[in-house]
Amino acid sequence: MDNREAYIALNLLPGIGPLRVAQLLQFFGDPATILRASKKDLARLPGIGERLGSVIRNWTDHCDLEAELEQVERAGVQIVTREDEAYPELLRQIHDPPLVLYVRGRPETLNCPNSIAIVGTRRPTTYGLRMAEILSIAAVAAGWTVVSGLALGIDTAAHEAVTRHDGRTLAVLGSGLGRVYPQQNLPLARKICDQGALISELPLQAPPDRRNFPMRNRIVSGLSAGTVVVEAGTRSGALITAAQALEQGRQVFAVPGRADSPQARGCHALIKDGARLVESFADVLDEFSGFGAHLRPAPLPKTSPPAERETPGAGLQLSGLERKLLELIAEGEEGIDSLIVRTGEPTASVLGALVMLEIQRLVKQLPGKRVVLRTGEIES
């Protein structure tokens, strides 16, 4: 048995997780040696004892490695272990990285340093869904990978926005890849595989279980440079993801909501505790300025009289719709719904174009779904 198969076998064993394997590796050196160790040597280790020592020593009684590998091959799933180059570098840095990752889709998308988690409640408001969509579209436009958990609500909105705009997205499941949960997201899961990957550390046929989701959440945050919480109640699992991101030394962002909205209370608590307030993806890019600096245009004149002011966006490569929107917004503060009507373009196209203009710091959003030019305050 080689080390790769040993990692997969250890991951199948009950009661043996990443932290215990890390302890065993300190003593035995590599995973294959762990499975060959004597029961006596295993039982002497703190935290292992006689019971777990017996499980490891008699590992073939507790899992069927050959059957698992056969099912994985038939399902078209790949297994990435810690020893593989495809294993995500960001995930290696957390204190309890998964022993293996089951991957369906494109494994090459796992190693994207410019990746952001977008998570939130399963019971979002219309505002929350819209913010998840806008942030995700902006992430795609900026070349970032969006990571989430395929749950209903905010997670689904984020994944769907990315797939509609041909971006990269990773979905981390709280079940095995052979038991995609929730079932109603199966069509979405297939789209994600085309543009990114479905990921799980659980055996192929592991069912969804409440205990799996907090463990899943550490992978969501671990794969990401930062985590954006869009909407979350005070008991939302998204707050667990945020807490794990902080433990991993990653940045946490939160989208503010209405003061009287239960779905906003978790985000407001995060902001009070020091999370960065996010109104647009430009706030994320500001935090990671090395990634976003190339998206900022040269500063526009700040003091030119209106008759002499340079056309907003002059010299930039903008789409026809982006230029049309700039022309309309240049007339004065404008509502997003009005812009959709005046351009006659699909809502998603207008939102995507506005996001691109916001990323390039040509416009900014105001309360009440209104936008205005930023020509008087663009940063250098």
Describe the structure.
By secondary structure, this protein is an alpha/beta fold. The chain has 3 domains: 1-63, DNA polymerase, domain 1, CATH 1.10.150; 104-292, Rossmann fold; 296-380, Winged helix-like DNA-binding domain superfamily/Winged helix DNA-binding domain (Arc Repressor Mutant, subunit A, Orthogonal Bundle). It is built from 18 helices and 12 strands. The chain has helices at residues 3-12, 18-28, 31-36, 39-43, 49-57, 65-74, 89-92, 126-141, 154-164, 186-195, 212-222, 237-247, 265-272, 281-287, 289-292, 320-330, 336-343, 347-359, and strands spanning 78-81, 100-105, 115-119, 145-148, 169-172, 197-200, 226-229, 251-254, 276-277, 334-335, 363-366, 370-373. The strands form 2 sheets. The chain has a 9-stranded mixed sheet, sandwiched between helices. Strands 10-12-11 form a 3-stranded antiparallel sheet. Strand 5 (169-172), helix 10 and strand 6 (197-200) form a beta-alpha-beta unit. Helix 8 packs across helix 18 and helix 16 (320-330) packs across helix 18. The protein is elongated. The N and C termini lie far apart (58 Å). The model is unreliable at 290-310 and 376-380 (pLDDT under 50).
